[in-house]
Amino acid sequence: DYGLAEADPDVRAIIDKEKQRQFRSLELIASENFTSRAVMEAVGSCLTNKYSEGLPGKRYYGGNEHIDELETLCQERALAAFHLDGKKWGVNVQPLSGSPANFEVYTALLNPHDRIMGLDLPHGGHLSHGFMTPKRRVSGTSIYFESMPYRLDESTGLLDYDMLEKTALLFRPKLIIAGASAYPRDFDYPRMRKIADAVGAFLMMDMAHISGLVAAKVVADPFEYCDIVTTTTHKSLRGPRGGMIFFKKDSVLGVDLESAINNAVFPGLQGGPHNHTIGGLAVCLKYAHSPEFKTYQGQVVSNCRALAGRLIELGYKLVSGGSDNHLVLVDLRPFGLDGARAEKILDMASITLNKNSSALVPGGIRIGSPAMTTRGFTEKEFIATADLIHEGVQITLEAKQAVSGTKLQDFMKFITSPDFPLLDRISD
Ligand code: PLP
């Protein structure tokens, strides 16, 4: 049995290059993080070899005594990390990732063509919350269910709860989804609960982006108001790639959530759980229940505020004027720029972030603080990071002015050509 370097030097070399890239760059993608060595050890372990369809104590395969112990430990730690009473809340730790977890909830609660409302993708929502364009039902969620998205108030960049209420009263959804991929503010769960109750809908929160912040109690607690809470495990939570679904143990609107959700996960949509991921998740959740994790998440939020403050000082406009969480959305339009070009230039300077083509800010970028906070950044380094981003934006502007064509391809050709006069400056 050979190690990777001997068995497959090609894959080893690619992993080494990716490791170098991660090590070298300023990682500012809001949905990414660096997980711990301990988590990676569990994920790279023999747990990947085992089939264990079913739940602890009720498996379709033999030899699961240790896997049962592991999954039970993971469930207990998940409830503890989010401060939940095991008599009132349960959790399924088997979802393969965030999108499957959401679809499993829809499968559990809805019939085909039932109505749902989630935040529109161009306003910061996630594909899996029901995205569709006027021409096409893009996400499976909008193919199998009838989706009526809600939106932000474009004048403030804040969620338009009044409009959500008005639309919900007309559309009468069976499920309202809170949560977002690009929203820098906290959610008004009491208001959303009221709206859900007024129309007899389930209320689900997809806390994928902010689950680490929720565990550390540095943002509002969705568990007080929601029936179901889903999450990914690899973003601010700092775990392996995966998903979880938390559900109330009481029956809600006549549905026994526990059995409906567990059945939707298996046999509804999944087969064998990824036990190596569940092992890594258990390790992550132990850390998520520690005082150090609370300190880390507090730093994530302070760092994001420092970044936001410096960007404002430098003359940038932020969607909603700032941030309550781990991300900021920057409007580059006042600089005559779009996010795509800035993303490319910053990438060349090893500053990794996302363009964010939202309806409010078609020319924007999304910047997150979790990953670099894991690498030890404090406010001071995030202020310096804002200055570096500013420099990159200035270079993008100069490059854009120097390119003859208007297409992104022309821009790419120019900035990657040997005569790009600003390349030396970027490499510094
Ligand atoms: N939900 C939200 C709010 C997200 O931001 C994301 C991913 O970015 C997901 C769900 C989907 O997670 P995954 O990529 O693991 O399917």
How many strands, which pairing sense, and closed or not: the largest β-sheet? Answer: 7 strands, mixed
DSSP strand content: 5-15%
Number of strands: 17
Structural class: alpha/beta
Q: How far from one another are the termini?
A: 44 Å
Q: Could you tell me the mean pLDDT?
A: 94
Multimeric state of these chains? single chain
Could you name the ranges where pLDDT drops below 50 across 5 or more consecutive residues? none
Core attributes:
428 residues, alpha/beta, 7-stranded mixed sheet, 4-stranded antiparallel sheet, 17 strands, globular, binds pyridoxal-5'-phosphate
TL;DR?
The chain has 428 residues and is an alpha/beta fold. It is built from 17 helices and 17 strands.
Can you offer a commentary on this structure?
The protein is α/β, with parallel strands linked by helices and 428 residues long. 45% of the residues lie in helices and 13% in strands. The protein has 17 helices and 17 strands. The strands form five sheets. It has a seven-stranded mixed β-sheet, sandwiched between helices. A four-stranded antiparallel β-sheet has the order 13-14-17-16, with helices on one face. A two-stranded parallel ribbon has the order 1-15. It starts with a helix and ends with a helix. The mean pLDDT is 94. The structure holds pyridoxal-5'-phosphate. Pyridoxal-5'-phosphate binds next to helix 5.
List the helices and strands and how they pair.
Elements: H1 4-7, H2 9-24, E1 26-27, H3 37-43, E2 54-55, E3 58-59, H4 65-81, E4 89-92, H5 98-109, E5 115-117, H6 140-144, E6 146-147, E7 152-153, E8 158-159, H7 161-171, E9 175-178, H8 189-199, E10 202-206, H9 211-215, E11 228-232, E12 243-248, H10 257-269, H11 275-288, H12 291-313, E13 317-318, E14 327-331, H13 339-348, E15 351-352, E16 354-356, E17 364-368, H14 370-374, H15 379-402, H16 408-416, H17 423-427
Parallel strand pairs: 1-15, 5-6, 5-9, 9-10, 10-11
Antiparallel strand pairs: 2-3, 4-12, 7-8, 11-12, 13-14, 14-17, 16-17
The structure holds pyridoxal-5'-phosphate.
